[in-house]
C-alpha cells in the first residue's frame, strides 16, 4: 500500500490479458455487501483488466430476494469476442463488521454489513500477466425512500504482486506535481474549473489506454487504487471528483466550484488522498 496526498491551494479575489484453453477455471471469493432487510436488491459489478484492454460486466437476479444460485449476466462490454464470465452465489450471507463496508454508517439506520461467498468462472484458463478481476456489489434498499450503497472491491489475480514504489499521482501529466495553486478572477457568480489527475510511473505518464503490457499494468494499478477527499477549508469552495474509466490517461477530473457572489477575496485549501493498493 502506498498513500499519496494531493493539495489544491486556491486564491480567488478581485485580481486576475487473459488467454484461454479448453477448460474452465473458477475463482471463489468473499464479497462484502450492504444489507437493508431480506429484500435488499443487489447488483454485482465485475471488472476485468488484461493486456488486451478492460472489460465490464453487470449481474443481477430477477426478484428482490438474493438466492443461492447463478446470477444472470445483463451487461458485458470490452474488446474482442471474450465471453462474459459466469457468476454464482454459493452460500448464504453472514454478518460482518461495519469496518468491512466503508461508508455504510453514513446511511440512514437499518443498514448492516454482510459477507457473501460467490464464485466466478471464465471459459478458459487464466494465463499470461497482467490480469486482474475485481468484484463489488451495489445494494439498493426497498424502502419508501430508497438508498444505495456500493461495497468495496474484492480483487482476484494469480499474477505476482507489483511494486508500487515507481507509481505516483500527479496534477500534471508531464512530471509529478502534488501541490497545485490556482488563481481565479472573481465574476460575482459561480466559477467552475476542472483539474485532472494522472497516474505516473518513474516520473512519466502511465497511460491505461495503451494496448500493451505497460498499459495493462497502468490499468492494473488504477483499478486497485482508492480515493478520499478531506474537502476544502472554506465553505465557498467545493470540489466534485469525477472518476475516469481506467482506459483513460486521467484518473479523476476534480471539478472546482467557487462562489464569488459576495466579491470578497477567497483563500482555500482542498486536500485529497490516493491509496495505491496491491493484494
UniProtKB/TrEMBL annotation:
Protein name: DUF2544 domain-containing protein
InterPro entries: DUF2544 (IPR021407)
Domain of life: Bacteria
Alphabetically ordered keywords of this record: Signal
Pfam families xrefs: DUF2544 (PF11245)
Signal peptide start and end residues: 1-24
